[in-house]
Amino acid sequence: MAEIAVTVVIDRLLSLLTEEARLFTGVPTEVKDITRELSYIQAFLKDADAKAEKGDTISHGLKTWVQELRETAYSIEDLVDEFILHFANPPRQSGVIVDFLSNVSCLIANLKPRLEIAYKVKDLKLKVGKLQEESSRHGFISSFEQGSGGSSDAINVQWRDPRVKALFIEEAEIVGIESPKRELINWLVEGAAERTVISVVGMGGLGKTTLAKMVYDNTKVVERFVCRAWITVSQSFKMEMILQNMIKKFYEAMKEPIPEGMDEKDVTSLGGLLKKYLEDKRYAIVFDDVWGLEFWGFIKYVLPENRRGSRILITTRNVEVGCAIRESRFHHVHNLQPLPPESSWALFCKKAFPGSCCPSELEKISIDIVKRCAGLPLAIVAIGGALSTKQKNELEWQKFNDSLGSQLETNPHLESITKILSLSYNDLPYFLKPCFLYFAIFPEDYSINCAKLIRLWVAEGFVKGEKGVPLEQKAEEYLNELIHRSLVQLSRVDDRGRIRRCKVHDLIREIILKKAEELSFCHVLGDEDSSFNGKFRRGSIQKGTNTISVETINRNAQIRSLFLFDIDAVPMLLTGISFGISFTSFKLLKVLDFEDAPLYSVPEDLGNLFHLRYLSLRGTKVKMLPKSIGKLQNLQTLDLKDSLVDALPVEITKLKKLRNILAYSYQFNPGGRTLTPRGVHIGEGISSMLDLQKLSYVEANNGSGLIEELGKLRQLRRVGIVNLMEEDGPSMCDSISNMKYLESLVIFSKDDSILNLQTILDPPICLRHLGLQGGLSRLPNWLPVLRNLVRVVLVNSRLSYDPMEVLQALPNLLELGLSNAYGGECFCFTELGFQKLKILRLFRMKGLKTLKIHEGALPVLERLAIEPSPQMEVPFGIHLLKTLTRIDFWGMPREFEFSMRPQSGQNYHIVEHVPNVFFHGFNVDG
To answer: What values do phi and psi take at 161, rounded to 5?
Structure first.
């Protein structure tokens, strides 16, 4: 775990010595010495961390060494940031005399901090040298000696694998696996003669090994496969040992003598021997606990495809491993799900109250405990077993539930939970560990906005840049890998299949929260933590009020990030920072997240936070930003969504590193059932912010000057423009032509006037989302060129012709929304039109009478919504849309609704194949 801290600080030092050192004079040579010695220590850290994570067998000296190294690394990082803070602002050139006096004044002013930093550097150099000398006393193995293996390389430390007990559980003790068990047995004993590969995928603790063992031992499977073997792979497998084990198991199953000299054979010889032996046999093999793609990449070649009905079953936590088998022609993937509430309750009661039922006085607290387990069998069994040893007392059980985090660490009954869930964390590469630990910042069961999480990781410096790849794209790859490793769960996926929100299992959060606190990575502060004395780099204030002590934060002047969640009142905290303590006390802050906090103003000294990269005032009552915001030279994200800020100070254009300006809100208009957007006013000079990637929404009614400046922002990925006037349309088109990377474009005309957007000579071919609100004489002639469009929304277009002829030819369109977009009577969906469209919404088409749906059109449509069209006839073509899962009719005439009712409706046969058909009425007066 010290590897995270040391790697981060080495990166900071290298950055200082390369890119940023050219800004300064007199960079101490000791910095190079520190970097070199830390790099040497880093080579031993995989071994040190692995030993530390193995638990009880390590010495107190090793623990102390790792802790001192981590704290020293943090101190060096603080020193680097202080150095940059003091010397990154050379005086502006303004004339010889003024320049000279300014330089002298700057030299005098910086003399004291320069000396202080020099002393600190020397002191830290001595500390690092001492730590380097001590590393050899602990017998660490250098990563150069270990080879290129990850943090899970084999370590010769005695350790009991808690997964072994899953192989010996009696079937009578198991609850809720009947359905997946039947499915797996069916895949094993029936089906094609070709070799078939089956994978069972799911997070640690879901019962993959238990399920696979029940299937492996099933009578049907035993009778079908005489030649069979069970192989536990695990993280630190050696292929020679795996192959030797397979050969022994197969020979033993067939009651044949094991070949001699296997210990002397290499991987190639063993693989050849195994493949030849299995050539004429129907075999079944289970590979339990596969962690990486490289295992399957080799083993598939030594297991012959002999058309004898052979089967391979793999269990894994990694989705990528589970999906890798799809390269086999015959394969099945079973994504093991958490237990449903009924099965969870039954399993808990079986363990917590063996031979009896749950007492009524314990029912409520028991239900709460089971909910926290979120269907994880490992947790339910362990916690139920722990509670079975306690008195059947409500107060006692409530104490247990309240202290579950510490119980996971100290209660021997829960040891298996921590060890099994920690395996996935320990297997992460170092660059993913801080990303995963970041989930500890958020409250329990909190659904996290994925786009926000990505911006935070970038701001924290967790994401490694690659040439030609935006940091946000790289961060999205990090998130996907955590999801594929079954560490992060999806909590919301949009209609287009994009992951919008995610979370971690509550028990995983408890484990990583302990790790994060141990690392001083972050600390959660609430009313009960007002007297906390420890150090932390990130503070998460949750469900607190004025009783949270400002001193707790003030004692951590090195704090990097501050988050507020579910805060009833900010006054004591914010007043303390603003006036009693000042932002100057937290000069190393990188992240300030005040989302949804009851905050009404931002102090002027905000500009003192030179290192600030992320500022969120989303959902606050803040109306104005201080002019000092122009001093935040490192700011990357400014999130003002749903705040009351309607204009940005002119100083904002000084922020050359700003990547995201999110500043929009919507006001619902119940009469017209529309959303009126509001953006922010930005003055001239925005063209200097060349790193901008997201700008939404900005008011366009400052004139064509602003629109023309947008064309100089070549990195924009997302743009939202509000109140565009017709005469500014050509300038807007010219600017859009320069946005080669644009993925999302939303434009609202002023007062729903005409959008003049016909002349984009070089359309952005990466565009995926297009939203236009305003009159259109015709669809833009560049629209058919945008073959990557997945979502199109047209509002108040008032077209005089059916736009479907153009739109249905877009090859990748998944979602289409039209609202008052067409004044005609008929939409025609022709054969082969909208081949990928999944969602179709037709709103406020007052003159619409007919939907003509030809056979072959809309072949994969899943959802259809139609808002009031008083003259609409029953769309008979709906019966051709076999993939529909939901239809919503809004404000339709009563006779229209009655005609589609089950049994009595004469048109029910048109929609009877659709599982969900809803009729909604609404009051247009609100």
So the answer is: -80, 115
